[in-house]
Structures are given as structure tokens and as C-alpha cells.
Fold this sequence. Notes:
It is a single chain. The chain has helices at residues 10-27, 31-38, 42-50, 57-67, 71-78. The radius of gyration is 14 Å and the shape is globular. By secondary structure, the chain is mainly alpha-helical.
Amino acid sequence: MGKSTLGIWTEKNISLSRAIKACMERTGTNREKIVKKAHISLPTFYVHLRDPDKITLGEFRAYINTLKIPKEDILDALYLEKE
């Protein structure tokens, strides 16, 4: 098998998914409420948690507002650290 290289955004995507899940737990927001606010289906929600690159801007805004995602987590998901 060939060597697999993860993309530069892989760690950021994992962190964003974890932040969304943690904020859902912290705020007591269930899946049904977040998919309704984001105007997506439940299967789409799960696909986007596995692959945050597919999250739309409108959906992201719904997550931020509904789940009260901290600014630090939002900025961390959007920017790569300078090396």
C-alpha cells in the first residue's frame, strides 16, 4: 500500500467536529433542533460532521448562533497557525 498523507486541514476539521459535538452537549441542543435551524437533513448533518469541508456558510452560522460556539474555536477552525 502507498503512503497516505492527510490534508493540511484534517486536524482543523477534526477539531471543528469536536467543538460542534461539545457545544451540543454543553447547551443541551439535540440533533433535531440543530438540523432544523441549519435547514438541513439529519443524514446531511452526519455527513458534514464527518467532513466539515462540506458545511455551508449558512449552516455554519446556524451552528455558531444556536450552539454558542466560542470565538476561539471558530477562529481556530478557519486559520492555520504560522509555522
